[in-house]
Write a structure and sequence with these properties.
Keywords: Lyase, Metal-binding. This protein is α+β, with helices and mostly antiparallel strands and 265 residues long. It has one domain: Class II aldolase/adducin N-terminal domain (L-fuculose-1-phosphate Aldolase), CATH 3.40.225. 38% of the residues lie in helices and 12% in strands. The chain is built from seven helices and seven strands. Strands 3-2-1-4-7-6-5 form a seven-stranded mixed beta sheet, sandwiched between helices. Strand 1 and strand 2 form a beta hairpin. Helix 2 packs across helix 4. It is globular, with a radius of gyration of 19 Å. The two termini are 21 Å apart. The relative contact order is 0.17.
């Protein structure tokens, strides 16, 4: 098989996986009409791919996808379609972190409270070990935005995207964004989707546990939740990496069985 044909088939497989990922994240309510998933081009590491500016659950074919240059977040080829205004979130992360191959940006209502409070979002259970014992970083755009562009909370410039990108490292996979949501990085589409879903689940669990602790424990005891320590979080993260295909295959079957989603890639 010629190399060009092999590369085309590989990209086709990634496109199909990406569209499934958009549908899974919508079905899981990690994304609604807003938020986005992206992936690094498997054959051109200085290119990343996102959908056009549309609700993730409605993405259905490669015609809905736009390839962008990592360097400047501009389309690789001319397109009549409008792209996401916040694609600098993705371009700046891919630019700084060569090992990141997929990104999710979400406005999950379960997670937003942790972006505006002093409560750290930390790994509560074994499915969210990637959050770590220290907890997710918090990014405040007010510290980085250009005053001339207004304060709409969107990451739309190289400066704000770069500042967000610097919050990620080998110990931080998820960054909370004040009054906005969260952004998550991973080395594959499947891993990004799984971790995004379990970030939301962890937030729900932590909020419930803190509420129970506040009701039934002494004053201030919500701070004393028995969460995962460093070793537990690290080994739990490794477990999710080993088993990611199990939930992925289930979720693909679920979105394929629903009449709402279409994937012709």
């Amino acid at each position: 098989m010629a190399a060009t044909e092999s590369n085309a088939l590989l990209l086709q497989a990634y496109n199909r996986k990406f569209i499934h990922g958009c549908h899974i994240l919508h079905q899981s309510r990690v994304l609604d009409a807003f938020g986005h998933l992206s992936f690094r081009h498997p054959g051109q590491h200085d290119v990343f791919i996102m959908s056009l500016s549309a609700a993730p659950g409605t993405i259905s074919s490669p015609k809905d996808l736009i390839a962008y240059r990592v360097g400047d977040a501009e389309p690789l080829e001319p397109t009549p379609y409008k792209g996401y205004e916040e694609r600098r979130i993705h371009s700046e992360i891919y630019k700084l972190h060569k090992n990141v191959n997929a990104i999710v940006h979400s406005h999950s209502e379960a997670v937003v409270p942790y972006t505006i409070s002093n409560a750290p979002l930390r790994a509560c259970y074994h499915m969210a070990g990637f959050l770590g014992a220290r907890g997710a970083a918090v990014f405040d755009i007010a510290e980085h935005r250009d005053p001339a562009l207004g304060a709409d909370m969107l990451v739309r410039t190289e400066k704000t995207g770069s500042a967000l990108a610097r919050t990620f490292d080998e110990t931080n996979r998820v960054t909370l964004m004040r009054g906005h949501g969260f952004t998550l990085v991973a080395d594959s589409i499947e891993m990004a989707v799984m971790w995004a879903i379990y970030t939301q689940k962890n937030a729900l669990i932590q909020t419930t546990a803190a509420t129970l602790q506040s009701l039934y424990g002494p004053a201030g005891s919500a701070r004393d939740l028995h969460l995962l320590d460093n070793e537990e979080a690290t080994l739990a993260e490794d477990m999710t990496k080993r088993t990611v295909q199990r939930p992925w295959q289930l979720w693909v079957r679920e979105v394929e069985a629903r009449g709402l989603y279409v994937n012709t890639a």
